[in-house]
Amino acid sequence: MFSFRRHRNENDEKTERKEKEPIVLEPLEIIALEVNSFMDIKNTVELLEAGKTIVISFKRIRDEDSEKAKEFLRRILEFVKAVKGNLLAIGNDYLMISPHWVIIKKLGDPSHQGK
């Protein structure tokens, strides 16, 4: 007799078990850093080269010396651009930077709709 029902075999059971196993991803590490000196800029560059995502605070340096803060920001922007990284300003005091393979999206931003 002909039937459309498929008979189960051992391979089906193995496939079902594999499909139910959770996918294990490596944890994503995000580094928080306050920029106060050129050494902090160097650390930021090294962390980005190592593939880390970094949140940088400019609040203290911006309040103390706005020209120094502008220079720090210029150097970070140049480096992020050179390595084709991603950058997102969060308010006036923070930046989030990441390697090119980590996408940063700002919710509510119409330029990211549908991507």
List keywords for this structure.
Translation Initiation Factor IF3; 17% strand; 4 helices; 115 residues; alpha+beta; single chain; four-stranded mixed beta sheet
Describe the overall structure.
This protein has helices at 10-20, 38-49, 59-64, 66-82, and strands spanning 30-34, 53-57, 86-90, 94-98. It is of the alpha+beta class. The protein has a domain at 30-98: Translation Initiation Factor IF3, CATH 3.30.110. Strands 1-2-4-3 form a 4-stranded mixed beta sheet, with helices on one face. Helix 2 (38-49) links the parallel strand 1 and strand 2. The N and C termini lie far apart (51 Å).
Explain the layout of strands and helices.
Layout: H1 10-20, E1 30-34, H2 38-49, E2 53-57, H3 59-64, H4 66-82, E3 86-90, E4 94-98
Parallel strand pairs: 1-2
Antiparallel strand pairs: 2-4, 3-4
Helix pairs in contact: 2-4
